[in-house]
Each structure stands twice: as C-alpha cells, then as structure tokens.
User: Which sequence fits this backbone?
C-alpha cells in the first residue's frame, strides 16, 4: 500500500462518521418527510401526489396563526435573551478578573447539568397555585387567595429565556473576549461617552457574536417543545405542539410532515432576513464566534 | 487664569500604588508647550501607568496632574483634551479610515460638512490623501501608524500621548517612522509625550527625555545631557552602551577618584553628578565604547588617560558602528569602537592592542544604589 493510499484511507475513515450522521439523520429523514408531505390522502390507503397538505395549512387560519405566534414569541425571547445576556457576557469577558472569569462561566453552565424536564418542573414548583411564590405571598399577606402563575404567555417567555440564555452568552463572551481593551479606551479617549462607545464600538465589534447567539437562540426556541407545553399548558399554541398533534394524536403523518417543513422554511427565512438586516453573512458569523 | 501657561502638561508629586506596590513614586515634571518629551524606562518601571493616569484611565493615589494649567484629576477621560496613540494602535476594524478619523469629531458634535473638511485636511497633512475609503486591514503598518496619529490630531489635542507605538514595526520601518514622527510633531506643533523602552527612539526624537526606573524619575534632561552627564549609575548603564566595571575607591582628588577595579586594573575616573565618594566605597565605573581608543601596541599613550593592554578577541562588524572585543591581560572583555574600512590596517583577532581613554570619559557612581 502506498503512502497516497494510506492517506486516502485515513481520510475516508475520518469522514465516514460525519457522512453517516449527515445522510442517516439529516438527509434521509428529510427526504422521507418530503415524500410524505407531498402525498395527498384521497381515500383510505390511497394517496396521490400533490400540495394538498400545504394548501390545507394556508386555508386554516388556526395553523398559520400558531406559526406566526410561535415566530413572534421566539423573536421576543431572542430579544430578551440578548438584552439580558449581553451585560452578563460583557461582565464575564471584560470586567471580571481573569480568575473569577472561569468560575462565572461555570456557574452559567450549571443549569445545563439538569435536564430540561427537571428545570421546567422547577418553574412549576415555584409558580403553580400551591407553589412557593403563591404561598409566600399569601403568608406575608400581600394577596388573599392563591394565584395561578402558570399557563400564560409571560411564564412561557420567562421559562424559554431561562432555558436558552446560555446559548446567547457563550458566543457573546467569546467575541467580546477577543476585543482589545485598548479599543474601548480609545473610544473614550477620543471623546465618546459610555453610550457612544457601546453603540459605535462595542456592539459593532460584537455583531458576529450577537448574530450567532440570536440564530442559535431563535432556532432553539422556535423548535422547543417541552417548555411551552409544561409552562404554557394545553393552550400555549406552540407550532411544535401542532406538529406533534398531527403525527401522534390524529395520526396524520402527511400533514405533520408538511408542517415540519413549513417550520423549517419559516425559521430559515427569519434567520435569512435577520442576516440581511444586520449586514452579516453566515460564514463570517460562524467563523468569528 | 492659570499660573504657568507655558506648560502644556505638569505632574506634581504623582503617586500610584497597587496594593503594596508603588508603581509610580512621587513623579514631578513639566513639559513646555510644543516639545517632544520622552519617558524612557525598562518594562515594568511604571511608565505605562503614568501615561494611563495622564489619559485618565487610572486615578493617581496622590498628587496633581495639570493640563494647560488646569487640574484634570477629577475630569473623566472622555472630557480631557489629551489624546492617546495606543501600543497596538486600537484602530476600529469595523470602520473605514474616514470613519475612524471622524469618530472623535462626531463625539464632539461637529457638523457634517466641517467633519468632511477636517478629515480631508488631516489626511492631506499626513500625506495619505486618498485612503479615506479604505478599510483598516488594507493599510500597511506605517500607514496604520499615521492614521492612528491623524485620528488624534484631528481633534487638536493639548497633549498627544504615544505608548510605544513603533514596537510592532520591523526595523527598517521603525527607523523611518522615528524621523517621520519627529517631522509630524514639528508640523502639528503639539506637545508629544512618547513612552518607550528603546533608548535610541527616545534619543533621536526627543527634545527632553525623562529616564524612569522603579516608579521614579532618575533624570530629566536633553538627550545629550543624559548621554554625556548621566545623573545616576542607572542612567549611565541604561542610556547608550557602556563598559561597566565594579571596583573600590582608593583615593579621592576633588572631581576625580582613583578606583581599583575588582579585576585588578587601577584607573582614574570622573565623579558622576551628585555623588560624594570616600576611599573604600564600592563604586561602578562606566566608559562608553566610543571613548576608548584601540591601537596596536607601539604608539604614545594619550596624555592624562589610562591605558590597558590586551589582545583582540573578536571583531563585531556593524558598518559604521563596528567594535572590537578586547580581552585584557586580566581576562575581562572590553568593548571599544573602531573604524573598519576593509583595508589592511584593520585590527584582526589575536593582535595585541593598547586601549586608552581620558579620565573625564570614565564616570564613577556609587555601586548598588540602583540596578537596571
């Protein structure tokens, strides 16, 4: 065996797991989903090729309202995660000392050690009618009867922000960490106020990290299932719930597959618009953060 | 409105302590308007801390800093008319050249047309009129340097601080930039405060140089004063090259002392400024290589000077700055400047030579006071 053959073999061996992952878990399911989504059920066990499932979606307001609601709430969650996460990331990357930086990062990671389900139940324990907050407020005497704080949109948004904020902080810390402190000092030295320095120097510099964080957070939120269901209850109207319903409850795989594709197209479109508006490219965002 | 309008920058008894460490220790100086002032010192001597205090990024623990006669200690950095060229320049990579220079003017609320006029004017003055639309990464090292200076000068500062900005450049460009900086300073006629650990940068460019060591100013003077009349052993050793010998005073005669070196040689040396020496004191004697004459054994010794016999150990050829390393009969190595023309008269390794120098050129300081 020549040197060249060995090199080629090792390349194939290294590449194989990646190729298998892409083909078996990403490409194949999507082809399958695509085929199913484009089947119309005309009679029991009789199918025809067509766009009927997508047309159904367009004709039923409850479906696309749910999708729009999921999209807009996901955008709200993304914006909140950015507003809350940016100061935290700035503190970790620029203000905290070298030694406390690692510890702070670790503290941010702690919630990830606990499963999604347990964290959601944590919120339920706090917020339900007989939960910690409600009973404490009653004990102090601020309220007369028990208050139900679960099953509304605010709770869903709070729970989602809490779940995804880490994925905003990590890329932000890594971009801000790469920023020379002298750049901020130069901003002040040349006469800029704190707001000017933030607006004209820090945020433009951190833009790739901001965009990366926003993409990750938006995709995670729009595709999340557990948190909206557990905290929002039956009427949370999250689009993933609609998809689940089609697949499992109604056993209508055709509609479910079509909805899955619509969610993918919708979130991709939102990300594309976001990139265009912020003047960033996906490649630059991924490479820099 | 102020007591000393002739000075752009004055520091009075400025101290800065970080915990138990005194980074800057009772530093006082004033800089006349429109001059080029350098602060020269080894790394860690506190010069960057001093500069950051002048710019307002650190607060002095005690003492006062005045710009144009007004105390600025309570003024935040963005309200001081002191601009700074950072070590790595800190140009904003997300803005082009024009935006970088316009940034400060925008912060000051200058009108749009006025910004355009002033930016083009300053680009004209640094001889880079057409780079406004370029991105920062498209510039060469020397161009970036000039843009960083232009970005400050467009704001018409009282004082421009430069924190070792030539450190990142290669040697040839550094030499060219030294001259260019000096010319720019003349052209803008603004006070430049230049921080460096490179003595040649400080000597070439400055009107006045302060030598700093362990948080204190050792000496302030013109480059010539520092070089020829160092005020301390540290300055003598740090500024320029010198042969440094440790010894002990055997006899004191007015401004001269007889010193017996540890290696055995006995020589006469001039007492350094502000030194009072008594017989028996440990001292250090500094003789610059250019004041030592190296000749083949045979000629007459220079009157009133000391001589030393030795053998050429090696030639250190460096064009006009060539030197010989001479091993004396007591086996110490001494550097002396020589002219190497490439002809047959050049000294060669192994030849016996006699070194001679005048007692005035040998400076003697008490030893152990301050090591570099």
Assistant:
């Amino acid at each position: 065996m020549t040197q060249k053959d060995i090199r080629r073999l090792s390349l194939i061996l290294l590449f194989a797991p990646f190729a298998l992952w892409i083909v078996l878990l990403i490409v194949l399911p999507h082809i399958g989903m695509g085929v199913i989504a484009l089947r119309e059920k005309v009679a029991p066990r009789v199918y025809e090729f067509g766009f009927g499932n997508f047309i159904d979606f367009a004709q039923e307001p409850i479906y696309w309202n749910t999708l729009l609601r999921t999209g807009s709430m996901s955008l709200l969650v993304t914006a909140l995660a950015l507003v809350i996460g940016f100061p935290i990331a700035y503190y970790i990357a620029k203000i905290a000392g070298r030694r406390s930086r690692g510890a702070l990062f670790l503290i941010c990671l702690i919630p990830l050690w606990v499963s999604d389900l347990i964290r959601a139940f944590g919120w339920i324990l706090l917020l339900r009618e007989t939960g910690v907050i409600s009973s404490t407020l009653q004990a102090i005497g601020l309220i007369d009867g028990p208050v139900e704080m679960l099953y509304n949109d605010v709770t869903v948004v709070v729970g989602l922000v809490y779940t995804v904020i880490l994925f905003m902080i990590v890329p932000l810390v890594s971009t801000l960490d790469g920023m020379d402190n002298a750049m901020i000092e130069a901003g002040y030295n040349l006469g800029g106020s704190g707001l000017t320095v933030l607006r004209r120097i820090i945020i433009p510099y951190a833009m790739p990290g901001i965009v990366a964080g926003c993409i990750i957070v938006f995709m995670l939120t729009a595709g999340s299932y557990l948190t909206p269901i557990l905290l929002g209850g039956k009427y949370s109207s999250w689009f993933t719930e609609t998809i689940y319903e089609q697949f499992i409850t109604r056993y209508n795989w055709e509609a479910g597959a079509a909805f899955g594709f619509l969610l993918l197209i919708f979130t991709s479109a939102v990300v594309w618009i976001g990139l265009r508006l912020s003047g960033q490219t996906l490649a630059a965002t991924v490479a820099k953060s | 409105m102020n007591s000393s309008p002739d000075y752009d920058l004055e520091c009075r008894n400025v101290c800065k302590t970080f915990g138990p460490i005194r980074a800057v220790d009772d530093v006082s100086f004033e800089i006349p308007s429109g001059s080029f002032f350098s602060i020269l010192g080894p790394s860690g001597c506190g010069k960057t801390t001093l500069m950051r205090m002048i710019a307002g990024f650190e607060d002095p623990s005690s003492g006062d800093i005045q710009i144009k006669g007004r105390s600025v200690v309570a003024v935040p950095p963005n309200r001081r008319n002191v601009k700074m060229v950072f070590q790595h320049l800190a140009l904003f990579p997300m803005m082009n050249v024009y935006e970088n220079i316009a940034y400060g003017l925008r912060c000051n609320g200058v009108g749009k047309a006025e910004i355009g006029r002033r930016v083009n004017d300053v680009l004209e003055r640094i001889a880079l009129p057409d780079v406004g639309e370029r991105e920062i990464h498209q510039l060469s090292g020397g161009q970036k340097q000039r843009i960083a200076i232009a970005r400050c000068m467009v704001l018409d500062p009282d004082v421009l601080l430069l924190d070792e900005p030539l450190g990142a450049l290669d040697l040839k460009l550094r030499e060219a930039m030294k001259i260019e900086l000096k010319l720019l300073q003349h052209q803008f006629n603004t006070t430049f405060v230049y921080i460096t650990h490179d003595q040649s940068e400080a000597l070439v460019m400055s009107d006045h140089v302060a030598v700093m060591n362990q948080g204190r100013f050792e000496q302030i003077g013109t480059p010539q004063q520092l070089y020829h009349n160092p005020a301390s052993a540290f300055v003598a050793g740090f500024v320029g090259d010198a042969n440094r010998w440790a010894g002990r005073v055997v006899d004191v005669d007015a401004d001269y002392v007889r010193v017996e070196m540890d290696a055995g040689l006995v020589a006469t040396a001039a007492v350094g400024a502000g030194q009072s020496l008594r017989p028996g004191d440990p001292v250090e004697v500094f003789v610059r290589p250019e004041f030592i004459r190296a000749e083949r054994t045979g000629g007459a010794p220079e009157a009133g000077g000391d001589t030393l016999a030795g053998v050429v150990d090696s030639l250190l050829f460096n064009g006009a700055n060539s030197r010989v390393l001479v091993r004396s009969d007591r086996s110490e190595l001494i550097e002396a400047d020589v002219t190497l023309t490439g002809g047959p008269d050049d000294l060669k390794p192994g030849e016996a030579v006699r070194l001679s120098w005048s007692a005035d050129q040998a400076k003697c300081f008490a030893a152990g006071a301050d090591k570099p």
